[in-house]
Amino acid sequence: MRKFLVISIPIITLVFFILIMLSGNILKKPIGNDDNIPESIQMLIQDIESENWENADIKTNDLSASWKKIVKRVQFSSERDEINQFDICISHLRGAIMARDKSSSLIALNEAYEHWNDLGK
Fold first, then answer.
1. What are 42-70's pLDDT values in tens digits?
2. CATH number of the 2-118 domain
3. Which InterPro entries would you find in this protein's record (predicted)?
4. pTM above threshold 0.85
């Protein structure tokens, strides 16, 4: 019995950690209505292209809140650099919206979308 426990406990632990580290693509999928990052980015792109800056500012806050929910789920299965880069993109987006700079806003959103796609790979 002791030999079985000595062998099985490390194997079970390793399998558990491997499953956690490979679960990034599953955990980043939306669970509710308020944590769909790709949809939020698409809606922001539409608002920025139509230069609806007030609505874009509100949706940026919604995107940030959604990201804070998702980052808690994917923090163990994603690279820390990708998580930090997504945070930086949201900060750049806030500044570009405050400046009402259409091109910088779209650049920040596309960069954020690329970081989102790379998250969990």
1. 999 999 999 999 999 999 999 999 999 99
2. 1.20.120
3. DUF4363
4. no
